[in-house]
Amino acid sequence: MSELFYNRPQVDLVSESACLLRFSDAVNNETADRISIVAKALRELPGIVDLIPSYTTLLTVFDADHYDRFAIVARIRQLIEQLDFDEKQLSAAREVVIPVYYGPEVGPDLDEVAQHCRLSVNEIISLHSDTSYRAYAIGFTPGFAFLGNTPEVLHVPRKNTPRLKVPLGSVAIAERQTAVYPSVTPGGWQIIGRTPVTLVDWNSESLALIQGGDTVRFTPISRAEFIAQGGTLDGF
């Protein structure tokens, strides 16, 4: 089956105060680029109160108390028609580099992942850190970015029994995706490392370090570097 891709996103009202922009059914960088371009333009449109990007869609929430929903959808469609999706705008995503300590104290699933993939632990680390990822969606908890796509050889299932508490900064993989847990939460992904970097700053305007559409790379650091940068080894 061929992947469906719209030259311009489809715009559909989904409630009295929101419309959904559908870009494609393909999860890839081009779709992510187009979502980022439209989201950036919509932030300047009067009446828009929230933008929620996902893998192939952009939920646009507007002020229904002061703006007519049909009028604002017409403005959104008009704005989209005026956008130029050229190569200079595409692939202009911001890059976020995250240091990771891939160690047994903080990556309890490393050996299990290596066995599942029939690779060595060092090969798992190299493959994970040599790949550039896109932040396709933000959700689950504030600042939790769903990053894809992992190399096919690293596709592993979620754990049968999720952990009740995943430590702050844990780096994990599951199926085609990787992510960093920005807070202590339950979680069922395979944990392979930890970053000392703070992913959510409640005092900042942007809140989260990783934004939808960003490019993310992981860079391995030693145990000593991890601790020197504020990392902790407890939690499991």
Question: Can you walk me through this structure?
Answer:
With 236 residues, the protein is α+β, with helices and mostly antiparallel strands. Helices cover 22% and strands 31% of the residues. The chain contains five helices and 13 strands. The chain has helices at residues 29-42, 69-82, 110-117, 121-129, 223-228; strands at residues 5-15, 18-24, 48-53, 57-62, 95-100, 133-138, 145-148, 163-166, 170-174, 177-180, 185-187, 190-194, 215-220. A seven-stranded mixed β-sheet has the order 5-13-6-7-10-9-12. Strands 1-2-4-3 form a four-stranded antiparallel β-sheet, covered by helices on one side. A two-stranded antiparallel ribbon has the order 8-11. The N and C termini lie far apart (44 Å). The model has no long low-confidence stretch (mean pLDDT 90).
Produce the secondary structure layout.
Blueprint: E1 5-15, E2 18-24, H1 29-42, E3 48-53, E4 57-62, H2 69-82, E5 95-100, H3 110-117, H4 121-129, E6 133-138, E7 145-148, E8 163-166, E9 170-174, E10 177-180, E11 185-187, E12 190-194, E13 215-220, H5 223-228
Parallel strand pairs: 5-13
Antiparallel strand pairs: 1-2, 2-4, 3-4, 6-7, 6-13, 7-10, 8-11, 9-10, 9-12
Quick gist of this model?
This protein is of the alpha+beta class.
